Amino acid sequence: MQALTDTTYTEKAGKRKNCFYRLGKDMKKNPILYLMILPVVAYYIIFHYVPMYGIQIAFKDFVPKLGFLGSPWVGLDHFTRFFSGYNFKNLLRNTLEISVYGLLVGFPIPILFALLLNYLPGKWFQKSVQMVSYAPNFISTVVMCGMITIFLAPDTGIINQLVKALGGKPVAFLSVPEFFKSIYVWTGVWQGMGFSSIIYISALSGVDYQIHEAAIIDGATKLQRILNIDIPSIAPTMIILLILSLGSIMGVGFEKIYLLQNPLNMSASDVISTYVYRVGLIDSDYSYSTAIGLFNSVINAFLLIIVNSVAKRFTSTSLW
Amino acid sequence: MVRREDMEKSSALRTGNISQSWHDQVFDIVNIIIMIALFALFVWPLLFVFSASFSDPNAVWNGKMWGIPVGFNVECYKTILKYKNIWIGYGNTILYTVLGTVINLAMTVCAAYPLSRKDFVPRNLITGIFVFTMHFGGGLIPTYLVVQKLGLLNTVWAMVIPGAVSIYNVLVTRTYFQSSIPEVLQEVAELDGANSAQYLIYIVLPLSAPILAVMALYYGVGHWNSYFDALIYLQDMNKYPLQMFLRDILIQNKVDLNMMGLDTTQAEAKQKLAQTIKYGVMIVASVPVLCFYPFVQKYFVKGVMIGAIKG
Fold first, then answer.
1. ipTM (interface pTM)
2. Which ranges of chain B would DSSP assign to H, the alpha helix?
3. Interface of A with B in 193-252 (CB under 8 A)
4. pTM, whole model, 2 decimals?
5. pLDDT tier for residue B308 given thresholds of 50, 70 and 90
6. How far is B127 from chain A (nearest CA, A)?
7. Does residue B174 contact residue B110 with C-beta atoms inside 8 Å?
8. Band of the pLDDT at A16, cuts 50, 70, 90?
């Protein structure tokens, strides 16, 4: 990252020689800076690194009295139990399907939206579309899921009123497993596309307009300008965001799925994160739940590293 | 670099010296149609909820209301005002939002300022320690066990401490400090005998008002809308934030009309009122954010853009 590059060569050499001496001297010179950052470092240690240390209970049988360290080891028992469990395949499939579907739809749409918005004639119209497109982002997950539930209600929901008005038969959308993933992904697009497009809009506004003007004089159409000027200009932004989303492909968010789940759509809506919650906090099977969570985050971290190195190799854009 | 806006003012291109090809005309028409459709798609669901809460419950129930209020009815709001849980939730949410945001801001500045100083020796190490947690963490249960061990469960602190700072926001704030405040100011301040704390308080922070506003908004909206921490850390109903009560009403269908001081005997009328109440609580819960929204949305955009510079 950027911070790593601006340490100069001599600083690095000096650091190797005597970094503790330098640290001590700096502490005496600028004690206030150290005092300031102390609570934040303490926070990260307590709430992020101690839990990482606690991951060991995934290989133990956690007994609250004995704590992280004292509980007896059981090796990979929890993992084998998870992999051989009746719902393992289903959980993995749902998790992957939802996130791949979400990525295929949710990644290109904000880009297309930003590109089209950029060519929309009329500043006022452009600004208005932009402004309303951000609004859904500020609705809470609970209200969002409330809207979904109430709009899709079997008899009285507005969508079924529309179906009835068009002569169709009402459908209990949220009770049909086949519909669940589409409902989840497309409502996510509705809520997030405007806000996700901001980063592309700002990247597009940085494109030098002289290039566009040259292209116009050469007779390029808007579509050609999008393909040959705009898309190459925002490609680095696209790659970074793609790396990040591929690196969290196993991390389907808990909050929304949990609220939309019901016994009838469970076969399509049960994902790893909701299972971790159910097993861990409802059934209090701490070690088992930690093992599943660990499996999930290791795959995520692994994917991130692979995707990042592939991107580095082929496009010279990468996270680190 | 030439900005598009500057160019267009003086450009001959817009005044028709080079006429648009039919390709571009088709493109523009298709684009306008798509954008009008999207505009409607963004506005309609929000308008529908708003109108439904003010409409005659019968019309909403029977599908006679499509976006423009039918009749005028504030019955649901009167009922909601009598609903004790909404008030408890509102109070708690305000407390968590204010307290949480203050802690968030203090922590963010305390992390971002030293990391923005080039002469702060362990800055790479500490940045690394923070950034690592973005990609890997202990997970739900180990974090829960730590919170439990610290005795924070079921207290106000469980709502504000475990999420006390977000590394992404620290990086954005640090970048702002580095890029928008000239380093020479620090030298001048030091010559005048100011120490780091004085320099931060009297010079850096006043100059950083825009980024602090953005951060306060990010954190504040996050607190207002969150329910996950409450779900896992709180058991006591009297400590529940608004979103938890909303969940009961909207998702779990627990609309307790008796608690709202109503005695509706007819089953159907009860159901209709319950439905309108759902629309009403969505509005009541979103009003603070929606009221702020038009004024603050440009700051949100700014925040994303500052973040984008960092990449």
1. 0.88
2. 4-10, 22-54, 57-61, 75-81, 84-116, 123-135, 140-149, 157-160, 167-180, 183-191, 196-199, 205-207, 209-225, 228-233, 242-250, 267-310
3. 194-195, 198-199, 202-203, 205-210, 212-213, 216-217, 219, 221-223, 236-237, 240, 247
4. 0.89
5. low
6. 8
7. no
8. low
